Amino acid sequence: MSEHDDPPIARRRLLGLLGTGAAIGLSGCIGDGIGGLGSDDTGGETDGADTSQSYAPNVDQHPGDEPIEFDESHHCAVCNMKPIDYPQWRSQLAHENGEGAVFDTPGCLFAYTVATSSGSEIVGAWTTEFETDTLLDASEAHFVLITDADAADDPMKINPRVFGNYDDAVAYLDEWEAEALTEDDIIGLDDVDRETASIYRENRI
After folding, report:
1. Residue 84: which region, alpha, beta or left (left: phi > 0; alpha: psi -120 to 50)?
2. How far apart are CA 79 and CA 97, in angstroms?
3. DSSP state of 107
4. How many CB atoms are closer than 10 A to CB 131?
5. DSSP 135-160
6. Do 151 and 178 contact (CB within 8 A), yes or no?
7. Cα 163–Cα 15–Cα 121 angle in degrees, nearest 5
């Protein structure tokens, strides 16, 4: 396949949308990912209270210019699952202040970028190419936004498909038969907003 001619997204432009808010305790993910965050004894009724969530960095020291090794001590900053258990899905990022965060899936990476409590800029991010264990520079990756969770068989129910080569992402549009997708459904990491992240982790942001 030929390589796409678009220039790579500058790493320092990754995301300038870091929000503020208090970090909350994390719990494990079960089944469709509802594992406790945002749940209460009211059956979902919150009497108009703000139920939005925020996520704090969970890596104290990250070099920022290259990914760190995943290990047994790491838990996803969004869902608390272990990234080391998901070598074909895991992701991570680095903040300018030297902190970082790790994730079991690109869907959780999306959620963190729009709902982090850190005030420090994201200066590096890495995510695993679909159906491989190859960690890519997420600022240069192409994300195919599938939305049919019933057709997916993913950790946390559903995740975007990650490709390092744009033409591979385009080819996947035809391979994914569950829904009609177009090249408009291929985005970069700096295109991710709350609406996009909600496709994958609606109950966590």
Report:
1. alpha
2. 23
3. H
4. 12
5. EEEGGG-EEE----TTT--BTTB---
6. yes
7. 125
Task: Collect all residues with Cβ–Cβ distance below 8 Å to 27 and sequence separation of at least 6.
Answer: 35, 36, 37, 80
* Model pLDDT for residues 83-124, shown as the tens digit of each residue: 999 999 999 999 999 999 999 999 999 999 999 999 999 999
Strand partners, 137: 126
- Give the whole-angstrom CA distance, residue 112 versus residue 57: 9
**Secondary structure letter of residue 59 according to DSSP:** B
Say what the pTM is.
0.78
Q: Which helix (H) or strand (E) holds 168?
A: helix 166-175
Tokens representing 125 are 């991010």
The first and second tokens of residue 204, run together, are: 């966590």
The C-alpha angle 26, 108, 146, rounded to 5 degrees, equals 145
pLDDT at 52: 79
For the record, the structure tokens of 113 come out as: 């970028």
Beta-carbon neighbour count of residue 122 at 10 Å?
28
Q: Are 4 and 167 in contact (CB under 8 A)?
A: yes
